[in-house]
Specification:
Length: 553
C-alpha cells in the first residue's frame, strides 16, 4: 500500500472516531488494497480486510462507542488518531513536509485535546506530537537524529508551547469547574436562606432547617445537634440518622471541626457559632461534602438557630402582651358590667332600710336586689368558666337527658334577660342524648343572651333542638343586624366585637365561653347569616341517641 493510501486511511479513521455514536462505519467499508476483494462479502480472515485503514476504522468506531463514558480516553484516542492522520497526510502530500506547517497542525491537535481532557492527557498528547514531529516530519526522516540546528529550535519551541498551552487550558478548565461548583453552592445557600426566612414556627424551626439542609444539598445524613442541660438534642434531617456521642460533640463544640470513625464511614462534626459563641454542632458523613462547604453551611445554620430563638422569644413576648391586653380588656369590661348591678343592689338595700317603706315597694326593691345578684352570679360564673377553659380543666360529665330539658335549663339560666322577649321553641322531647347537661345548657344560654342583646325590642327569638346520626343539634336564630362577613372568622374570640355591634354592652366573653364548653364535649359551634335577616348560631354535640324508655343507639 502506498503512503498516500495509508494517509487517506488514517484521515478516514479519524473522521469515523468523531461520528455520532451508534452508527457503525464498518458496515459499508470495502476492502482497500492493491487488489480489491472480489467476494460479495469479505470474510474476517481476508488479507485485504486487515489493512491499516480497516484497523483505523475499527478503532474509530470503538472510540465512538465509549465517547460518552470515558472523556479522557476518547480525547486521547481522538488526539492520537488526529496526530497519525496529520502525519500521514503531510508525508503523503510532500516528500519533505514544511516543519512550520507540521508544527502548527500538530499544535492545533494538542490545543484541541487540552480543551477537552485533563492535564495528564494533554501532556501525553504533547509528547506524542513531539515524537511524531521528530520521527516523521523532521529530516532525517524515520530517525531520532536532527540534522539541522534550526529544527532543534523548532522542536524545543513546539514542546514548550504545547506544554504551556496544556497547562493553561487545564488551569482554565479547573477554574471554570470550581466557579461552577461555587455558583452551585452559593445558589444552594441562597435557597436555604430563603427557606429559613419562610420558617415561622419556633417549635419546629430547627427540625425544619435540618430537612431543608438535607434537601438543598442532597445529603442523606445530616443532624443539627444542640446542647441542653440534660445532654444533646439531635434534629435529624436526612434518611439515615447521624448519632455522634456526647464526647465527640463536646470536643467539636470546644475545639473545632472533628472527624471520627463510625463503622465503615467517617463522621465529620462542624461547630456552629454565633460570633465567637458556640451554639451547636452540624454532623454528617465526611463523604457528603468537603469541610469548606460544610463550614459555610454551618454559618447559615447558626443564623437559623439564632432566628429560631428569636421566634421563640417573640412568641413568648406576644403571649405576655396578649395576656396583658386580655387583662386590661377584662378589667375595663368588668368595671362597666359590675358597676350597674352593684349600684342597683346598693340602692335596693338602702331603700329596704327605710322601715316606713310600704310592703309592696319593699317587695319590688327585694326583687331588684335578687335580680342584680343573679346577674352578678352569671358574670362571675362566666369568669370561672373562661378560666377553666384556658386551663383545660373542663371535664364533661355525660348523662342521658332530652334536648328539650337542655333548652329549658338554658332559658331558665337567662330568664331575666328574656323576660321581654318572645321565644319560639321547637325542641325534641321524645329522644335522649348523652351530654353534660350543665355545659351544654350553659353554652346554649350564652347564645340566647347574645340573641337577646342584639335583637330589636319585641323581635322573637327562635330556638330549636333535634337529634340525628351526628348527635344533638341546637340552633338559636335572632332578627338582629346580622354579622359582617369579615367578623365570622373571629366572632368566637375573647373580647371580640363585630363591626355592627361595637356599641353593645357585655364582657365579650359569652361566645368564647360557648366555643370552649362545646369543644370540651367534642362538638363545634358556628354562626351564619340568615337571608331574611339576622344571624343563626348552631351547636352540634356528638352523642348517641336513644328513644325514651328504649335503648336505641
Amino acid at each position: 500500500m502506498s503512503d498516500r493510501a495509508t494517509a487517506a486511511g488514517s484521515l478516514y479513521g479519524f473522521f469515523m472516531a468523531v461520528r455520532v455514536p451508534g452508527e457503525s462505519p464498518i458496515a459499508n467499508v470495502s476492502c482497500v488494497g492493491a487488489t480489491p476483494c472480489s467476494a460479495a462479502g469479505c470474510r474476517p480472515e481476508c488479507p485485504d480486510r486487515r489493512t491499516p485503514l480497516d484497523a483505523v476504522v475499527r478503532y474509530g468506531f470503538t472510540m465512538s462507542a465509549i465517547q460518552q463514558r470515558r472523556p479522557d480516553v476518547v480525547a486521547a484516542c481522538a488526539g492520537l488518531m488526529a496526530i497519525a492522520s496529520i502525519t500521514a497526510a503531510l508525508r503523503a502530500m510532500q516528500e519533505q513536509p514544511n516543519p512550520t506547517i507540521a508544527a502548527l497542525l500538530l499544535l492545533l491537535v494538542v490545543l484541541a485535546t487540552a480543551t477537552a481532557a485533563s492535564l495528564r492527557v494533554s501532556i501525553a498528547m504533547s509528547l506524542a506530537a513531539m515524537l511524531a514531529f521528530d520521527f516523521f516530519l523532521l529530516p532525517p526522516f524515520q530517525g531520532w537524529a536532527i540534522a539541522d540546528a534550526q529544527n532543534w529550535v523548532a522542536l524545543f519551541v513546539f514542546v514548550m508551547v504545547a506544554a504551556i498551552a496544556s497547562q493553561l487550558s487545564a488551569a482554565v478548565r479547573q477554574r471554570a469547574s470550581e466557579a461552577v461548583s461555587r455558583k452551585l453552592e452559593v445558589t444552594r445557600l441562597f435557597d436555604l436562606s430563603r427557606d429559613i426566612l419562610l420558617t415561622t414556627d419556633s417549635d419546629t424551626a430547627i427540625a425544619d432547617v435540618a430537612r431543608y439542609v438535607a434537601r438543598r444539598f442532597d445529603l442523606d445524613a445530616i443532624a443539627i445537634c444542640l446542647p441542653t442541660p440534660a445532654g444533646w438534642d439531635l434534629h435529624q434531617g436526612g434518611e439515615r440518622p447521624v448519632e455522634p456521642s456526647g464526647a465527640h460533640l463536646d470536643d467539636a463544640l470546644r475545639l473545632g471541626p472533628r472527624e471520627y470513625e463510625e463503622g465503615r464511614e467517617r463522621a465529620i462534626l462542624i461547630p456552629l457559632r454565633q460570633g465567637s459563641t458556640p451554639v451547636g454542632v452540624l454532623a454528617t458523613w465526611s463523604s457528603q461534602r468537603d469541610v469548606g462547604t460544610l463550614d459555610a453551611l454551618g454559618g447559615v445554620v447558626a443564623i437559623a438557630i439564632e432566628r429560631a430563638h428569636l421566634l421563640a422569644e417573640r412568641k413568648k413576648s406576644e403571649a405576655v402582651i396578649q395576656r396583658a391586653d386580655l387583662a386590661s380588656a377584662l378589667l375595663a369590661s368588668f368595671s362597666h358590667d359590675l358597676r350597674t348591678p352593684v349600684t342597683s343592689v346598693r340602692v335596693a338595700v338602702t331603700n329596704l332600710q327605710d322601715l316606713k317603706l310600704p310592703a309592696d315597694e319593699r317587695r319590688v326593691q327585694a326583687q331588684l336586689a335578687l335580680h342584680e345578684l343573679d346577674r352578678l352570679t352569671r358574670l362571675f360564673q362566666g369568669i370561672l368558666d373562661m378560666a377553666r377553659i384556658d386551663a383545660a380543666a373542663v371535664n364533661p360529665q355525660r348523662q342521658w337527658v332530652s334536648p328539650a330539658d337542655v333548652v329549658d335549663a338554658a332559658v331558665a339560666h337567662v330568664g331575666p334577660a328574656l323576660a321581654e322577649r318572645t321565644l319560639q321553641i321547637d325542641a325534641d322531647g321524645l329522644n335522649e342524648i348523652q351530654v353534660d347537661p350543665r355545659l351544654t345548657s350553659t353554652a346554649l344560654a350564652h347564645l340566647l343572651e347574645n340573641a337577646a342583646r342584639y335583637s330589636p325590642a319585641g323581635a322573637p327569638i327562635a330556638v330549636s333542638a333535634w337529634t340525628n346520626v351526628d348527635g344533638a343539634h341546637f340552633v338559636v336564630r335572632d332578627q338582629g343586624p346580622g354579622v359582617a362577613a369579615s367578623d365570622l372568622e373571629h366572632l368566637f374570640e375573647p373580647f371580640y366585637r363585630g363591626l355592627k355591634t361595637r356599641h353593645a354592652t357585655g364582657t365579650g366573653l359569652g361566645l368564647a365561653i360557648t366555643r370552649g364548653l362545646v369543644a370540651a364535649e367534642g362538638g363545634r359551634v358556628w354562626c351564619e347569616n340568615v337571608p331574611a335577616g339576622g344571624a343563626q348560631f348552631s351547636i352540634v354535640v356528638p352523642s348517641p341517641v336513644r328513644v325514651l324508655d328504649a335503648d336505641v343507639t
